[in-house]
Amino acid sequence: MLPLIKTSIPPRETLMPRLEEVLYSGYVAQGDVVEQFERKFEEYIGGGHTLSLNSGTAALHIALILAGVNEGDEVISTALTAEPTNVAIKMVGAKVRWADVDYNTGNISADSIEKAINSKTKAIIVVDYAGIPVDVKRIQEISQKYNIPVIEDAAHALGAKYNEIKTGNHFPFTVYSFQAIKHLTTIDGGALQIADRDLYEKGKVIRWFGLDKKLSRLDNDITYQGYKYHMNNVNATIGLVQLENIENIIQRYIDNGRYFDEELKNINGVELIEYYPNTKPSYWLYTLKVENRDAFVKMMSENGVIASELHKRNDLHTYLNDYPTELPNLDAFYGKMVHIPCGWWVSDEDRAKIVKLIKSGW
Ligand SMILES: *Cc1c(COP(=O)(O)O)cnc(C)c1O
C-alpha cells in the first residue's frame, strides 16, 4: 500500500556516526548541540528566533502563554486541524471559539475570524492545513485592526512561502512540530519561531521550569510557572542532520503537489483546493474534494493507494467544543475532503498511477 504519511530518516552512514558521537559524548541533555540546531533552523527560516522544544504541542502552549492568554480568555481557532492545536488552548485554561473555514482552501476564514472576535478574544490560532499557507495578508490586517496576536500553527507547513518568504516570518509566533511524520522529524520535537527578542528570552525560561539557564541554580528565583519542554542534544543532532537535506525533501513534496495541481484539473467529481495569492504550499498532504468519497477511498485502496480524511474535525470532541457553532463551510468541505499521498516517497510512477486511477473514475 502506498501510505499517506511516512517517516523520513537520513541514511545510516550519515546519521549513525553523528548519533554515536553525541550518545557517548557524556552530554546528552540540552547543551551546545541544541544551540547549534536553533541557529541552523533560524538560518533555514530566514528570520526570527528559534526556541527548540520537545514537541509542537509545547510550542503551542508557550506561544499562548507569551501571547498573554489566561484562564477564562477566548482563543479563536479552526476545527480542521490535528487535536494539539486546540488541546493547547485548554492547557492555559482558555476557551476555544471556532471560526469557520474558507470552502475553497480548507483554511480558517478571515471573515469568520472577524465575526468571532469579542472582548474576551486574546489570540487567534491559524493553521496552514495540509501545508497550504493561510490568508496571511487579511489575517495580518485583522490582527492589527483589533490588536490581537496571531499564532501560526505551521506544523504542516515547513518550507511553505508567502511573498517568497518562508512561514515563520509572518506572525509573532509560528509553531513547528518535528514529530515522526512531519516534513522534518527529530523523532519527537518542536520549535516556536518568535519574532520578538525579549519574548524569546522569556520563552527560554518557561521551557526550563521557570529557571534562567544564564544564572547559576542558587542565583535563580522562579517568579512564574515554567515547564520541562526543552529539546536535548540527541534530538538536536538528528535535527541538524535532517536540516542538511531538508530542501531536497520538501522540494519532492512540492514537485508532487504541483504535478497533481496540473494533472487533476477538470476531472468529473473532483474539485481542487485553491491557494491564496502569492502563496506557495509545501504540500504535506495533497487534499482533494471529491464526490462520493467513500467509493473514492475504496477504489484507491483496492488499487494499493491510501486515501483518507486523516483528521477528525475537532468540534466533534466534547472537551474542545466550548461554544458549539454552526460551521457550514466546514460541513461542506469536510463532507468531500480526502488526502492522497504526495510526500518524498511518492515516485514518478506512483503519482502517474494515482492520476490514472482518479481519471478512470470510482
Ligand atoms: C503534529 C501537529 C501538532 C503537534 O505536534 P507534536 O510535535 O506532535 O506535539 C500541532 N499542530 C498540528 C496541526 C500538527 O499536525
TrEMBL record:
GO molecular function annotations of the record: transaminase activity
Domain of life: Bacteria
Keywords: Aminotransferase, Pyridoxal phosphate, Transferase
Short name of any one Pfam family annotated for the protein: DegT_DnrJ_EryC1
Protein name per UniProt: DegT/DnrJ/EryC1/StrS family aminotransferase
InterPro entries xrefs: DegT/StrS_aminotransferase, PyrdxlP-dep_Trfase, PyrdxlP-dep_Trfase_major, PyrdxlP-dep_Trfase_small
Family named by the database record: Belongs to the DegT/DnrJ/EryC1 family.
